[in-house]
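so my prof wants the structure for this chain in the tokens format not the other one, which i didnt know existed until like an hour ago. anyway here's the sequence
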Amino acid sequence: MAEFIIDDDNYKDFLPGGKEVQGNTFGLVYRDPKQYPVGSYGAPEWDLSQLQIIPRSEWSDRIKEMKRTKSRISDLRNIADRGKPFVNLDQNGQGYCWAYSTTHAVMLWRASMGLPYVRLSAHAIGCKVKNYADQGGWAALSMEYIAKHGVPSVEFWKEKSMSRSNDTQATWQNAAKYKITSGWVELSAPVYDRTMTFDQFATCLLNRIPVATDFYWWGHSVCSMDLEEVEPGSFGVRILNSWKNWGENGTAVLRGDKALPTNAVAPRAVTSTAA
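here's what i got, hopefully its the right format
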């Protein structure tokens, strides 16, 4: 199947019934900036100002070089499972996309570090954060939880399981092996007194940093992997989705306004355990 390119011309084809998103569609819900302002999840250890913004004049050449060397995040994902792509996680029709986007980020970081493939249980994060209710949220909620507790493998918390029997001491000992370390950052946080620009987002991707991204137009949270030049001078973002049998191995490219996330969070690094 050819990779989807989603933009202003066809995005409604990817919405339920082709209708505009109203509220909680796939699990992403509105984050009230007054009640949950950027920075309300504590001060991350990673200061985004440490990451020098890559000027747009360099984007095209950098993308071409990353393609030539097969070093994009998507390239590393494509060989992560013993030379094959790891199969994208499936949220199973439940509203935990905001936990899946960050869990995918941890898995992609591990792939970029050359660590053995381990399939992680995003449902564990959704269940714990929402007390086992099938409720929506946003990526910063799950990112904060993973930074503190980690995310367990599916051997300890069965994939797509809502059972409280998974919640054991052994499960969270295992989860600690797959933590976000060295801090994380909300890209929408003020940096030098300015808000997030697409340049910050692109800079993370060009530095092979996966970004969990919330898109209000879609009512959905996914993990962004690559900056892509869709056509000369026109850039988009390759995302990894949490739906079964969707796109090209779970991926698609968003471009134009549809590539601009409402909220975005990026981990600095993950635990470097090989187990």
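also thought this was worth mentioning. The longest strand covers residues 220-231.
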